[in-house]
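Narrative summary of target 7.
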Amino acid sequence: MRHRSLLIITTVVTTGALTLTACGSRDDSKGGSDSGKKTTVVIGVDAPLTGSLSALGQGIKNSVDLAAKTANKNNEVPGVEFKIEALDDQAVPASGQANATKLVGNKDVLGVVGPLNSGVSQSMQGVFGKADLAQVSPANTNPALSQGDKWGKGEKARPFKTYFRTATTDVIQGKFAAQYLYNDAKKKKVYVVDDKQTYGAGLAAIFSAEFKRLGGTIAGTDHVTVKETDFSSTADKVKASGADSVYFGGQYPEGGLLSDQVKKAGAKIPTMGGDGIYDPAFIKASGVANDGDLSTSVGYPVEKLPTAKKFLTDYQAGGYKDPYGAYGGYSYDAAWALVQAIKTVVADNDGKVPADARAKVVEALAKVSFDGVTGKVAFDEFGDTTNKQLTVYAVKGGAWADVKSATFED
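Modeled conformation, tokenized:
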């Protein structure tokens, strides 16, 4: 989380669609192209489908659905028909854990896309790990999920071999944001605020460390509480600090209100955040014009990617009520990675779903490599995406507009 990002949201369907195979409990002799009957393979989806982050969650679900339908249409995995099972976590860790248990219990589920929030993912990883069930998040950005709690000390250790992600981490996003704000926007004194959540606090800490390394000053720090709406005391602190900018680690519901109240307090300065605020709802939450506010997001703007054209066309043709949102492209790519892994597993087993399909899918997923909607889709030894492209967006005329895209280099 999620982070949190609308940018490279789409994944190309042109690489061929894949179909998921039955779960590890199926008999080797059942299903497959020889029997004439298709084996149902389910791709699970976990995301906030209701609540304040539902716009992002619905985009994730719909994009996975599109990938599954494309795989079926193309008969990517002969003898396999893909379906999805989408569960609502409401951005609550306990709900995510319950959903993980439910998905593990469905023998047809061979992989899961989600969740949106890093904090929710922390509650799900162990459940999937014990079941050898592959999990690919299109939005998680907290480094600890893939590199362990001591990653900041340089001691990287992958907690679960079942965990993968198509979104880059906050280590990259936080530094990228700090470099832009200091070098490009020429801001030297920033006030840092976070929402005390896994994603927001982690992102703010990484941003702060890089901003100070560059020579910038942290004018002050403060915290807000998720779902609260009165941030006037924080806004007053920002004004009194003399900061020339605000960096917010959190999501758009609180971020939009914070930007609004900072400006109303008399501090006519930009608010910047990560992919968690990169949503039209951030702009709508402000009662005053917030042109000049900034956000980062993973990948390049999907509308400008040649590889995303088919995704965009197919998504529109699919008649989905909600937009694909910040993570649509990454969600499609995550689902397609699972399809590719399943395709390999089925092909290696004479066209049938093996009894230990889940474990084999995890192994195959680590070796997946294809050109997706968001760019090259592949994973490193920690399960992290090898794609380190990011974009800075600015609010212009009441809408987000990309101002800089680049591949991050430390």
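The first strand starts at residue 39 and ends at 47.
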